[in-house]
Design a protein that fits this description.
Largest sheet: 9 strands, mixed
Distance between the termini: 63 Å
Low-confidence stretches: 1-64, 710-730, 867-881, 1148-1152
Protein name: Receptor-type guanylate cyclase gcy
Strand content: 5-15%
Region (Disordered): 1-28
InterPro entries: A/G_cyclase (IPR001054), Cyclic_nucleotide_synthase (IPR050401), HD/PDEase_dom (IPR003607), Nucleotide_cyclase (IPR029787), PDEase_catalytic_dom (IPR002073), PDEase_catalytic_dom_sf (IPR036971)
Radius of gyration: 40 Å
Mean pLDDT: 78
Organism: Seminavis robusta
Structural class: alpha+beta
Transmembrane segments: 76-97, 421-441
Length: 1152
């Protein structure tokens, strides 16, 4: 295993005294103009004083008299004029002659390219016409012989097929007959009777009669066979109605002399490529082509056979395949290489190199020289003629082939001569003798020295950021040609001699590699546990914000502790102590560094949860340490890095993977080193040994993370867990500060972090609302008192919510507006409101404030992924034309996010049906419809209308119209989360069909109404998808929330608040939930076309989770039951302990 040095993780993180002197050296060099390739001091050059003196002499030469100076200046002026003149004339002559050569090159290339395209297209057309004629001949033969399809046999088929192959260059020609279920039995008898003779005829025609088998040894199936999928065995078609028609090989030429079974009773419709080709030919009425993966540019051609000359009934097909490279042979005798790029409308690309009359396949991608992109000559190679309005089968694509031809550098070189240089040289030669008299050689040398010095300084700065200082110095020594070890030098020379032809740059390897063996090192692997699942639910920008913040904090700790950062591999951070600076305290330093990283991880993730959203604070570091020897050095070549190798690195990686989140796992060898260093109190043996590949079972240890961490969690009292910090260093002082902060409990609780994050999300949208608000605010106090009164929340629901419309000019202005600052009082009121809403949520396993925050995260992600429109109707904004106005109005987005925050407030943890069954007063209040959802809206709306939130309300809406729209959006959005009510679901389905189905009416008569209808439906499905977004995210996230939902319902069942044990039908119920709700919902997100890549992402995760649940769901449910039983047992145990304590307090006379 090799670890490469991170670009910024080299010398900048491991400055020794030499490293600091390098910085001073660069500063001195820039100021004095000196430079030494040794990286410190000037061992081989002049001193700075000498250089200053020479420069002073150069800048002020001693001249005897003023007249001599004037003469000197005049000579310089003459030289400059002559240089300008000769440069201009030479450049002009060179450009003129070169342009003539380039013009000739371009004209000749276009002529060749046009000829190649014409001949190639003619070859292709002729081939397809010949195949079509062959199919017509087959149909005609059947009619002539009065044969009835599919029982048709073509006499002398090998002869006719071989003639077709000679004319077209095809490799194989097969007659496929279409056999219906009604004709299957008759066909099977017909085929068994004749197949031996047909195969024997083909073998004899191609001279295979002396092979080890013949038609007599042939295995003939008793009935029609088919493969149901790729890689599956042949199975009888039988009377399976799902199979439908069969398309067996009937007459094939040539027959493989090594095949021992007859294909006459094997249907090819199990082969997707052939089936798609056959269906495409049936749909288009012409031959179809498809390129085979893994077979270069070989493709199949499926030519349909009709029972009449002018089409009629489809009765079979001619299936053939061959190499398209044959079309580019013997075209035009070009003196050098032409690149022929074949591009298909279905995404297939291949490149040929045409040299003379021979064409060679280079690869299945565009491999032409990009330098000649502007010289491309393009022509149609093959364009099928068919009715393109016809609907093709799903997943089938008809290939339109385009041939692009590019020149090559060697072709251009045949037109490039030395003539321009000769003419330009002649001009220069005329002026050369006169000009050389006036050139000061010393002047040119000094200028050259300055240029070299500046470049070397820049190169040294780049190398300094990539390699440690001592490695950098050794690299300079090797580059200067010095070798410390003659044996190493000889090995390097021998290496170059043996592999000179295989080395891209042999000069690089003439010196010995820079590599060393470090006997005493400790390597750390630190992986972010839960990162993969967390990142699946986050925007890519948030993912990189997390990694950059964490790794930057680790980098600072590495500098502070003198630890060498090796690399970051994905979400894994790799570091080492003892490399490249040997140190005896490497295990102690690395233990402290790992402990600091663990604590920093906790601090950083909790702080980031406020900005990155839920579950960020739950991320934990999983660390593994191992000590031993390793090899480190510079692995030269492309993008050289300082790398470490060896068993120590591999073992450290395995120690990390066998660790658990939030703990530091160390090997037995590292533990022994820490004990020898007097740090045995830091260690706690792991209860079980772990198996390591190649090492057997190993007794490993846990390293206490904090000196305030007690050993009770690792089987030891707290008083013995104090980790002493021996060295009074800046790093340890910082670590003590983090420990004291952790012990004091100053950090925010998870609930506080979620409140802060939700506040921040809504504040961002409030800033956009205020930035877009141009009109003066109009009081909505009167409407605030009456809105929502006199009717239930559900009765307020409207099928269409009217959103504001903006012109393109208004949209452009709104997009250019900068966010405005929100008054602190508004932020405080919003934070207080979110805090009280969070308090309304009950301590349910699923319907709690943490889940509401998870829904908010999904809503925010989907809103940010809504893509802008590429076109829109007259009078509509850019977003209104594609996202139906949702992204054009920040108040709409605020209302949707607000609804996600409040949608489950005061949820009792039981379904609405159970609340109705129990006779809950809320059920009658809300007319036994969407009880919990309506209650959430009323509670949170009443809270928002209280006087203490008047400034917040003014920021949200600025007039009664905005208040009405905000209220309506909140009602519609929250009501959409009731997915159990069948009547409401049916209404939503009808509204979706009205807006997005293929039969949806949109005659353009009321475009604004249609846009609002679609916007309303999209918002409903957005919140529905977000409410169950865990089912469309990573498997671990799905399991996390699925388990919580199960516990919530199972607890209700155990408490007698549910009629049926949910565990009985949970497995099958989840499959049905995926099939009939989740996956259709994800497809709707994709079909409405506004969510960009997120819709594809949600659908892919939903299908993957569904498949995983089918495989593992039953075991998962069993695990739920076991975990619930254990948690219940633990709760009962704690209850008994509390009861005993109360009894003891009563016995001692203490009041409880």
């Amino acid at each position: 295993m090799s670890i490469r040095l991170n670009k910024m993780g080299g010398g900048s993180q491991h400055r020794s005294s030499t490293g600091s002197s390098d910085k001073e050296f660069f500063s001195d060099t820039l100021s004095t103009g000196t430079f030494s390739a040794w990286g410190g001091g000037s061992n081989n050059g002049e001193s700075a004083d000498d250089m200053d003196e020479e420069r002073a002499n150069y800048e002020a030469p001693v001249v005897a008299a003023k007249e001599e100076k004037m003469v000197l200046y005049s000579k310089i002026a003459v030289v400059l004029v002559l240089l300008v003149a000769v440069a201009g004339m030479a450049a002009g002559v060179y450009q003129l002659v070169s342009s003539q050569e380039q013009q000739e090159f371009g004209d000749k290339f276009e002529s060749w390219a046009s000829e190649v395209i014409a001949i190639s297209a003619e070859h292709v057309t002729t081939t397809f016409e010949t195949i079509e004629q062959f199919a017509v001949t087959v149909a005609s033969t059947a009619r002539t012989t009065n044969s009835v399809w599919p029982n048709v046999t073509i006499d002398d088929y090998p002869l006719k097929a071989s003639m077709l192959m000679k004319l077209t260059g095809l490799s194989s020609v097969t007659l496929l007959t279409l056999v219906s279920p009604e004709d299957k039995l008759g066909w099977e008898a017909y085929a068994r009777e004749r197949v031996r003779d047909l195969i024997q005829e083909d073998l004899e025609f191609y001279g295979h009669t002396n092979e080890t088998w013949g038609a007599d040894n042939l295995t003939i199936y008793d009935e029609m066979m088919v493969r149901q999928g790729r890689g599956t065995p042949l199975a009888p078609v039988g009377n399976n109605e799902t199979i439908g028609n069969s398309l067996p090989h009937w007459q094939k030429s040539p027959v493989s002399p090594t095949r021992t079974d007859a294909l006459a009773l094997v249907s090819v419709l199990g082969n997707k490529s052939i089936r798609d080709g056959f269906e495409t030919s049936n749909a288009t009425g012409i031959a179809s082509i498809a390129f085979f993966a893994g077979l270069g540019i070989r493709s199949q051609v499926v030519q349909p056979i009709w029972d009449q000359v002018t089409h009629g009934k489809l009765v079979g097909a001619i299936w053939s395949y061959g190499d398209w490279g044959a079309y580019f042979q013997n075209l035009v005798n070009v003196p050098a290489t032409l690149f022929l790029v074949v591009e298909s409308s279905c995404g297939f690309v291949s490149t040929y190199a045409l040299n003379g009359l021979e064409a060679e396949l280079l690869g299945l991608e565009d491999l032409h020289d990009p330098a000649y992109d502007d010289m491309v000559v393009t022509g149609e190679l093959f364009t099928p003629v068919y009715d393109r309005n016809k609907t093709l089968p799903d997943g089938v694509c008809v290939h339109d082939l385009v041939l692009k031809i590019y020149p090559s550098s060697n072709l251009e070189s045949t037109f490039v001569t030395y003539t321009p240089l000769l003419y330009a040289g002649a001009v220069v030669l005329i002026f050369a003798i006169t000009s050389l008299i006036f050139i000061f050689y010393d002047q040119m040398v000094r200028r050259r020295q300055v240029m070299v010095m500046k470049r070397l300084i820049r190169e040294d700065q780049i190398v300094s950021s990539l390699f440690p200082s001592q490695i950098r110095a050794r690299m300079y020594q090797d580059n200067s040609g010095s070798n410390d070890d003659d044996a190493r030098s000889l090995v390097s020379k021998r290496h170059v001699e043996l592999f000179n032809e295989d080395l891209e740059n042999p000069e690089t390897f003439k010196s010995a590699p820079l590599a060393d063996l470090f006997l005493n090192t400790t390597v750390m692997f630190a992986d972010i546990a839960g990162f993969t699942a967390w990142s699946s639910a986050k925007d890519p920008i948030l993912v990189f914000m997390l990694l950059e913040t964490i790794y930057s904090a680790f980098d600072k700790l590495a500098n502070r502790y003198g630890v060498f950062k090796v690399e970051t591999v994905g979400d894994c951070y790799v570091a080492a102590a003892g490399v490249p600076d040997p140190r005896n305290d490497h295990p102690v330093i690395m233990a402290k560094f790992a402990r600091a990283c663990m604590m920093k991880m906790k601090t950083v993730t909790q702080k980031l949860e406020v900005t990155l959203g839920p579950d960020t604070g739950d991320l934990a570091l999983r660390v593994g340490l191992h000590s031993g020897q390793c090899t480190a050095g510079v692995l030269r070549g492309d993008k050289a890095r300082y790398q470490i190798f060896g068993d120590t690195v591999n073992t450290a990686s395995r120690i990390e993977t066998s660790s658990v989140p939030g703990k530091i796992h160390i090997s037995d060898f590292t533990a022994e080193l820490l004990k020898k260093a007097g740090k045995g109190k830091w260690l706690v043996p792991r209860a079980e040994k772990i198996p390591l590949a190649g090492k057997g079972d190993m007794q490993t240890f846990w390293l206490l993370v904090s000196r305030y961490q007690n050993r009770e969690s690792i089987k030891k009292p707290a008083g013995e867990a104090m980790m002493a910090i021996d060295e009074a260093s800046e790093a340890d002082a910082s670590l003590r500060e983090m420990e004291e902060q952790e012990a004091s409990g100053d950090s925010m609780t998870k609930m506080e972090r979620l409140v802060e994050w939700n506040t921040d999300v809504l504040c961002q949208l409030l800033r956009q609302i205020l930035a877009c608000r141009t009109a003066a605010p109009v009081s909505a106090a009167k409407l605030e008192k009456t809105i929502g009164q006199g009717q239930t929340v559900l009765e307020e629901f409207q099928a269409i919510v009217t959103l504001p419309k903006y012109s393109r000019e208004e949209m452009a202005k709104r997009k250019g507006l900068k966010e405005v600052d929100i008054a602190p009082v508004v932020v405080d009121q919003l934070r207080d409101y979110i805090t009280k809403v969070a308090g309304m949520y009950r301590s349910n396993s699923f319907h709690n404030f943490e889940h509401a925050s998870h829904v908010v995260a999904s809503v925010r992600k989907l809103l940010t992924r809504i893509v802008a429109s590429n076109s829109g109707g007259e009078g509509l904004g850019v977003d209104a034309g594609h996202s139906f106005g949702i992204t054009a109005d920040p108040l709409t987005q605020f209302a949707v996010v607000f609804s996600a925050v409040i949608h489950d407030a005061d949820h009792p943890g039981i379904p609405n049906t159970q609340m109705i069954k129990e006779g809950n007063p809320l059920a009658s209040m809300y007319k036994e419809k969407s009880v919990a959802e309506q209650n959430s809206v009323d509670l949170c709306w009443d809270l928002l209308m209280k006087p203490e939130y008047k400034d917040l309300r003014k920021a949200i809406y600025g007039n009664p119209e905005e208040l009405q729209r905000f209220r309506q959006l909140a009602v519609n959005t929250v009501m959409a989360t009731d997915i159990v009510d069948k009547e409401l679901q049916a209404l939503r389905k009808n509204r979706w069909n009205e807006a997005f189905s293929e039969n949806a009416l949109d005659d353009g008569s009321n475009r604004d109404l249609e846009v609002d209808r679609k916007a309303t439906i999209v918002i409903e499905h957005l919140i529905q998808a977000s409410d169950v977004s865990h089912t469309m995210q990573h498997w671990k996230i799905y399991l996390q929330w699925n388990e919580r939902f199960f516990f919530e319902l199972y607890r209700a069942y155990k408490e007698g608040r549910a009629g049926q044990d949910p565990s009985i039908a949970w497995y099958k119920g989840e499959i049905g939930f995926f099939d009939f709700y989740i996956i259709p919902l994800a497809k709707k997100l994709e079909n409405c076309g506004v969510f960009g890549v997120s819709s594809h992402e949600y659908l892919n995760y939903a299908q993957a989770n569904r498949d995983e649940w089918v495989r593992k769901g039953e075991d998962v449910v069993a695990g739920y039951l076991k975990k619930y039983a254990e948690s219940t047992k633990e709760e009962m145990g704690l209850a008994h302990v509390f009861a005993d304590e109360v009894a003891n307090m009563d016995a001692s006379g203490l009041s409880v």
